[in-house]
Amino acid sequence: MGVSDKRGDAQSDQPPLSLSLSLSLPFVSGLPQPQNGLPDVIVWMLVGEKRVASVRIKAHTVLYTRTSSFSSGQFCGRLQTVFLKYPMDKSSEKRSAAQLRLRVWMGLATDETEFEKFTEGKFFVAAERVSL
């Protein structure tokens, strides 16, 4: 037998590539999917107890870090304009419920002195703590 014959025999003992891929798919689909590290910031407009409009702001765009000013989010502590949308509005029209000008800063409580540099006048601090 030549060298090519031995390779041919070795390949015949292995399952075809398509069979190997189909057997690995259930394993891959059972793996946990990656999760976002930070939840987004959601601003709701309330009328009484009813939520009438909202806007979602990506957390990484308003996150503050001490490492460098270039590492902080693009809109961290900066005035920005956002448009609130009606919830469950599936229409093709792009309707806005309201327009807000706001300054969002998301950071650690230990960075409170840095937060005060971004504030002007009176402000309201909303904080939610999650203990695991």
UniProtKB/TrEMBL annotation:
Q: Where in the cell is it found?
A: Membrane
Q: Which InterPro entries match?
A: Ferlin, Ferlin_B-domain
Where is each Ferlin B-domain domain found?
A: 34-108
Q: Enumerate the Pfam families for this protein.
A: FerB
Name the UniProt key words of this record, in alphabetical order: Membrane, Repeat, Transmembrane, Transmembrane helix
Q: Give me any GO biological process, just one.
A: plasma membrane organization
Which Gene Ontology cellular-component terms appear in the entry? membrane
Give the source's domain of life in one word: Eukaryota
The protein's name? Ferlin B-domain domain-containing protein
The protein's organism comes out as Callorhinchus milii
